[in-house]
Design brief:
Blueprint (H helix, E strand, L loop, with lengths): L1 H11 L6 E7 L6 H12 L3 E2 L2 H8 L4 H5 L14 E9 L3 E3 L2 E14 L9 E9 L3 H16 L2 H8 L2 H4 L1 E7 L4 H14 L5 E7 L2 E7 L8 H10 L5 E6 L3 E6 L7 E6 L11 H13 L4 E6 L5 H11 L3 E8 L6 E8 L5 E8 L6 H21 L16
Parallel strand pairs: 1-2, 1-3, 7-11, 12-13, 12-14
Antiparallel strand pairs: 3-5, 4-5, 5-6, 7-9, 8-9, 10-11, 14-15, 15-16
Helix pairs in contact: 2-5, 10-12
């Protein structure tokens, strides 16, 4: 119910205008073509980003790159939703019956930074008439720009930019599987109260989704990002936000909270005196995960007895640790046991270089488990409804 109210508020708020960076190679004094393009965009309700920012963007991508379709592999949100890039070519002034004329050719291409879609390369011609000087170039530039904006392809491209189309592009990094992207898509539709979500692609652990896209449910990036960040059922950490684009990292640990019973380690006789210290170390390190609350069992238990004890105190997993072998043949093993099934869901093992390295080896194993465990817990433990807090050892 609360999510629906929040989303209704989100829909009711006015969508900010798309921000466009104008990057034109304009060699004429005063850059009349750039000025004409900016004026044309502003008159159509778009926000033109500051020239200083446009110059910063040129360090990443040049007008020539856009015109020739050479785009960076990873376009950042930057501080713009789109780039209008191109060039202006000025002919030599001519004199016809005492009237000066100046021909200008403007070539542009629109690049949507959220989707990486571009229009075709568009050309507009204009002729300035009158007295020689800056006004002659300005009049010609305005006519050339009017011709460019009269092209349906540019009008369609501008209409499809983010807020104009009501769409926010969500890019998710660190996705473990294609199935995880599908689950995320379904959860997003619930979070966004039924707003459409569409998969654009999944490749190399990166997924891209289009959120919204209908006039009835027009979205904007900052408000959607706030909604995603406040929903602990979504395994997303937002890292970058713009009006039409959100970049997030997939982090399953946000959605799980688990109580773990850490049992006394099984160690060789030579290490018997150190096993309690080692067991408490494992419990303490796991309590630092942020999504795990640990209890330590300071006496030996079989797996069956440990599972029964865990169920009795409301723990969902049992953590076993064991040092196998002797000398250079020793190995440190940590297993995570699902209390419901009594079966291991995560197992990590490493060679123990020496008895003295037992703590550093345990720390390394647990660092790996910290990243792996949430994916397994997501299938066995209900999602957290509030931020999980480590409660330390008991």
């Amino acid at each position: 119910m609360i999510g629906s109210i929040v989303f209704a508020t989100l829909l009711a708020s006015a969508a900010p205008p798309a921000r466009i960076a104008v990057m034109i190679d304009d060699a004429a004094p005063g850059e009349p073509t750039r000025a004409a393009l900016e004026s044309a965009l502003q008159s159509r309700g778009f926000e033109v980003v500051a020239r200083e920012l446009a110059l910063d963007i040129r360090k990443v991508i040049t007008p020539k790159d856009v015109l020739e379709g050479r785009l960076p592999a990873n376009l950042s949100v930057l501080e713009a939703d789109a780039i209008l890039a191109g060039s202006a070519a000025y002919g030599d002034p001519t004199d016809v019956d005492g009237i000066k004329s100046l021909q200008i050719v403007v070539t542009v291409r629109l690049l949507d930074l959220a989707t990486a879609r571009t229009t075709a390369t568009l050309t507009g011609n204009g002729v300035g008439l009158g007295m020689p000087g800056p006004n002659l170039a300005q009049r010609g530039a305005q006519k050339a720009v009017e011709a460019v904006f009269g092209n349906k392809a540019l009008a369609d491209g501008l209409a499809d930019l983010g807020q104009q189309a009501g769409t926010v592009i969500l890019i998710v990094q660190g996705l473990p599987t294609r199935a995880a992207l599908g689950e995320l898509r379904a959860e997003l539709e619930r979070t966004l109260a039924g707003a459409p979500t569409r998969e654009i692609y999944f490749a190399h652990g990166i997924g891209k989704l289009a959120l919204g896209g209908s006039k009835a449910k027009s979205l904007n990036g900052p408000e959607v990002a706030d909604l995603l960040s406040s929903n602990k059922a979504l395994p997303l950490v937002v890292t970058e936000v713009a009006n039409t684009r959100i970049v997030a990292t997939f982090e399953r640990a946000r959605t799980v909270s688990v109580h773990a019973l850490v049992t006394e380690p099984v160690v060789p006789a030579r290490m018997k005196a150190a096993k309690a210290e080692l067991g408490r170390f494992v419990a303490g390190e796991m309590a630092k995960f942020g999504y795990v609350r640990t209890s330590y069992q300071a006496s030996p238990l079989t797996r069956a007895a440990a599972v029964k004890r865990a169920a009795g105190i409301g723990a969902q997993v049992v953590v076993e640790s064991e040092i196998l072998g002797s000398g250079k043949e020793s190995a440190f093993v940590i297993r995570i046991i699902d209390v419901k099934t009594g079966q291991p869901i995560v197992r990590e093992q490493a060679v123990l270089a020496s008895d003295a390295s037992r703590f550093s080896t345990a720390e390394a194993l647990l660092a790996t488990i910290k990243g792996r465990l949430p994916e397994h817990l997501a299938a066995t433990v209900p999602a957290a409804t509030s931020p999980a807090v480590a409660e330390g050892t008991k």
